[in-house]
Write a structure and sequence with these properties.
The chain is mainly beta. It folds into 2 domains: 29 residues; 142 residues, no CATH class. Helices cover 13% and strands 44% of the residues. The longest helix is centred in the first third of the chain and has 23 residues. It holds the Pfam family DUF2911. This is DUF2911 domain-containing protein. It comes from Olivibacter domesticus (Pseudosphingobacterium domesticum). InterPro entries: DUF2911.
Length: 174
């Protein structure tokens, strides 16, 4: 027979164990970030989670070449514009889109997809992209950049850029 003190202590330890594991999982999530700016008369925003380098090799290892990537961490990255835009010479209607990328060593494909709100990956780690919902795909060239620990998006009058590790991926938008 257990003492009346032993049972509550076991419950307290069980609760502490659960709370510790939940808080560790929460800390493992990359922080949510946003970027907002004007491109011409359009207001553009990007909602994303920002992973960190943490001493890892990013391009070609953590983020494989030639495979669809969610262009951030956690949930799919969301790109929103309140006006029609021209992205790398192609029309993108006003609206919200999931933003994906296919990184390559010398060229990237940037994908604007009409499905939003989905987790960034499927079970097994593959990007959660339904290609039937692709609205626009453009090819861009990455450029060398100063070391950036946390992935960021920049928005300016020339377009957007994904910046992470020692790479910058500019996308021309009018």
């Amino acid at each position: 027979m257990k003492s009346s003190i032993q049972l509550p202590i076991q419950r307290i330890f069980a609760i502490l164990f659960i709370l510790t594991n939940v808080s560790l999982m929460a800390c493992a999530q990359s922080p949510k970030k946003s970027a907002e700016g004007k491109i011409g008369s359009a207001t553009v925003s990007i909602q994303y989670s920002s992973p960190s380098v943490k001493g890892r090799t990013i391009w070609g290892e953590l983020v494989p070449y030639d495979k669809v990537w969610r262009a951030g961490a956690n949930a799919a990255t969301i790109f929103t514009t309140d006006k029609d835009l021209t992205v790398e010479g192609k029309k993108l209607p006003a609206g919200s889109y999931s933003l994906f990328a296919i990184p390559g060593k010398s060229s990237w494909t940037i994908i604007f997809n009409s499905q939003t709100g989905q987790p960034g990956t499927k079970q097994g780690g593959e990007a959660n992209l339904d290609r039937a919902n692709d609205v626009l795909n453009v090819n861009v060239k990455p450029v060398s950049n100063a070391m950036t620990e946390g992935m960021t998006y920049e928005i300016d009058s020339k377009g957007i850029a994904l910046v992470w590790e020692k790479l910058k991926v500019p996308v021309k938008i009018k």
